[in-house]
User: Fold this.
Amino acid sequence: MNNKQFKYPDTAAFEYVTNALAARGVTYKDIADIAYQMQSNFIDDLDIKEVQKDTISVLHKREVLNNAMVGLELDRLATEGQLSEPLEAIIRNDAGVFGVDEGLALSIANIYGTIGVTNYGYIDRNKVGIIKKLDEDKNEHVSNTFIDDLIGAIASAVSAKIAHRYS
Ligand code: MG
Assistant:
């Protein structure tokens, strides 16, 4: 199916992603805080307001929105028990060998090159900022399989964008 009349719904995609994050208690400022933590080690006098602006700009990119929408929707469907088995059980249990959550995240992390990918690995390992809170909130009632990776990846892309600007 290829409808030439179809206009890509950028605004609706942005709203879907920001609303889905808000439903889990995450704002763009939480994502900016992670990126700030990563980049303030390297850039003197980095302004959090600048990082927040970059975060909003990264959150408008189609590559980011597309991958984030798919992951956030799968978390929502898994939380509501609406996926088919065995996918439902795999996502609900955040099975370590699944890897699709990291795959979507890497598509986001590398939009500004490899700096984003190395940052993503660090953030994921060290559970920086809001990711630590999401990780601690893990329970059988809600699927956190995609959201933590997506937030880490968006923060990594923001870090990479800033790193390139200052280099
Ligand atoms: Mg995950």
About this structure: The pocket of magnesium ion is lined by residues 94, 101, 145, 148-149 (CB under 6 Å). The two ends are 44 Å apart (CA to CA). The chain has one domain: 10-166. The chain has a mean pLDDT of 95.
